[in-house]
Design the sequence.
């Protein structure tokens, strides 16, 4: 699937790509709405429906990913509540092997995530992916989500890379579309970002089921 001789830089998403998206889906769709209702003495079903509607209105904007934003909106400490279900944080199969083999073959491994730095720190503490990365970039550092062309322009100013010789792996098609618009040539989507969800069909971009399918030849 990948001609590694044509790749110098690998950009990697975190949630749903290197890490199982189940933690995030469970937290935002179930745990946070339930705990918010408990803390405020609200009806759980009504509170959850209202929160998910608010969340959906912010989709693909930077605040959708921002723990500070939602902590202020809900008047709860979102980062602390994430620690309550942190045992669900897990690497996707062969993520560590892929990072190690890329490093051994001299490819740059750069994390580009929409996760807030608080969430990034929690996940680095709970997994080993940090040891296999050369650089970690959060879109919050730039004030623009990866769906925004401004993110890619800022990334290019900060990190020198050739879009024609760059591979970007992400589970979000809107994000991959923004990268394609910028000119990144090699793009891969994740077929099943949440291990508890169903594999996705009909994706616009070439879809990867497991990192073992693209491990560099030994």
Sequence:
């Amino acid at each position: 699937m990948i001609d590694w001789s044509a790749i110098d830089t690998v950009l990697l998403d975190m949630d749903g790509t290197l890490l199982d998206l189940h933690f995030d889906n469970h937290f935002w769709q179930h745990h946070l709405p339930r705990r918010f209702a408990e803390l405020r003495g609200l009806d759980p079903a009504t509170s959850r429906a209202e929160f998910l509607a608010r969340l959906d209105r912010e989709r693909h904007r930077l605040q959708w990913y921002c723990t500070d934003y939602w902590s202020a909106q809900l008047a709860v400490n979102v980062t602390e509540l994430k620690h309550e279900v942190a045992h669900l944080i897990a690497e996707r199969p062969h993520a560590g092997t892929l990072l190690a083999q890329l490093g051994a073959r001299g490819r740059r491994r750069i994390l580009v995530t929409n996760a807030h730095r608080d969430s990034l720190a929690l996940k680095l503490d709970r997994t080993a992916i940090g040891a296999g990365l050369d650089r970690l970039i959060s879109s919050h550092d730039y004030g623009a989500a990866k769906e925004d062309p401004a993110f890619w322009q800022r990334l290019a100013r900060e990190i020198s890379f050739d879009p024609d010789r760059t591979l970007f792996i992400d589970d979000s098609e809107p994000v991959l579309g923004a990268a394609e618009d910028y000119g990144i040539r090699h793009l891969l989507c994740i077929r099943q970002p949440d291990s508890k969800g169903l594999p996705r069909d009909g994706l616009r971009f070439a879809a990867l089921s497991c990192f073992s399918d693209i491990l560099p030849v030994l």
Remarks:
- The mean pLDDT is 95.
- The CA atoms of residues 119 and 125 lie 10 Å apart.
- Residues 4-20+90-213 form a domain with the Rossmann fold fold (CATH 3.40.50.1000).
